[in-house]
Amino acid sequence: MMVCEYKPGLEGIPAAESSISFVDGQKGLLEYRGIRIEELAQKSTFLETAYLLIWGELPTKDELSAFEEEVNMHRRIKYRIRDMMKSFPESGHPMDALQASAAALGLFYSRRDLHNPAYIRDAVVRLLATIPTMVAAFQLMRKGNDPVRPHDELDYAGNFLYMLNEKIPDPLAAHVFDVCLILHAEHTMNASTFSARVTASTLTDPYAVVASAVGTLGGPLHGGANEEVIQMLEDIDSVENVRPYIEDCIQRKAKIMGFGHRVYKVKDPRATILQNLAEKLFTKFGHDKYFDIAQEMERVVEEKLSHKGIYPNVDFYSGLVYRKMGIPTDLFTPIFAIARVAGWLAHWKEQLAENRIFRPTQVYNGRHEASYIPIEKR
Ligand code: ACO
Q1: Which residue is closest in CA terms to ligand 1's atom 44?
Q2: Among 78, 193, 371, 377, which one has the highest count of C-beta atoms within 10 angstroms of its own C-beta?
Q3: What CA–CA distance (Å, rounded) separates 246 from 315?
Q4: 74-101 confidence digits (pLDDT tens)
Q5: CA-closest residue to ligand 1 atom 15
Q6: CATH of 20-219+330-353, one of 3.20.20.70, 2.60.120.650, 3.40.50.970, 1.10.580.10
Q7: What pTM value is reported for the model?
Q8: How far is it, in rounded angstroms, from Cα 97 to Cα 93?
């Protein structure tokens, strides 16, 4: 058998062949099914983009309205899931609540008919429809309130903001939120997507696939950076403090949150899109000092670190946008999950189409022929 060199984190090792998304980190290019992210952000909606990712082609007008209608019809969650969520501790992290709730869906929809396109569609619709409802329900219930029913007249993004804030959202805020979902929907072979594909390869149900990916996304090295961006902006507190803060980080070799990316060595195209939308949002709802601090940070980091390929990533502006919408910081990663469900489901479907169970190998570096020492002699 061929012996391969061990690479920690499997860095640089292809884990699948995929036609879902493509990144060129030198050019700052991201495509979903071959379409540039800038074009999707400008012309598409999250549900249309989810359809594109999952089924590989843009839907026709009729296909899209049928899909939107199905998702709208499945937004409510069963009262037994709500009751289960009510018993979660209020102090628990919303990502843990989401992981448990997504896994619980598998109890209610336990049929596993992975070769049946109708089953696949049903699972896709149910997951896209209920994940936002579960995130919003936990947010209200941990404050001691009843969850708000989905609003039939509102689109995907607008309905989520409505369920969260109990009021019809401003159209600009709903639009910006929808674009945020598009931007976070998919990003090639990252940790949570790999986790989804490994779980999918065992032919378990799609609820387990999504629950395992949610658990993986929850870690601070993956989905949590935009929470830390907000903490950093609050710590910096004024535009005057930006330069000394950055110089201090560089001197201590500390990472500046929201900057740098394993793949992008130019500005993350998603950060450019979000920066423009953030500007519109802040112009409409009032500039606050955090936006000015962020702009100054981008200038100073570019001056000091662009030679290392360090530019803002998507998390730098998404945290600012969500904060401006009044969304609590610990919901930022669950919102990332709402978007990424589309990508995970696309990978689930792609994995099923050419499945081989993941069974990597290891480099054993333990001992051999050790003897069993009786407990009283240890
Ligand atoms: N601030 C300051 N310096 C940085 C930063 C940063 N954010 N990121 C990288 N560098 C420097 C490193 O210190 C290193 O310098 P050196 O060559 O003098 O030692 C050089 O740039 C290369 O850094 P690496 O750590 O090798 O870059 P890598 O590609 O491994 O790291 C990562 C990417 C993990 C994202 C890193 O940039 C980071 O920790 N950023 C902050 C956290 C963050 O924003 N994460 C979100 C990523 S996007 C997402 O997950 C959706």
Answers
A1: 258
A2: 193
A3: 18
A4: 999 999 999 999 999 999 999 999 999 9
A5: 308
A6: 1.10.580.10
A7: 0.94
A8: 7
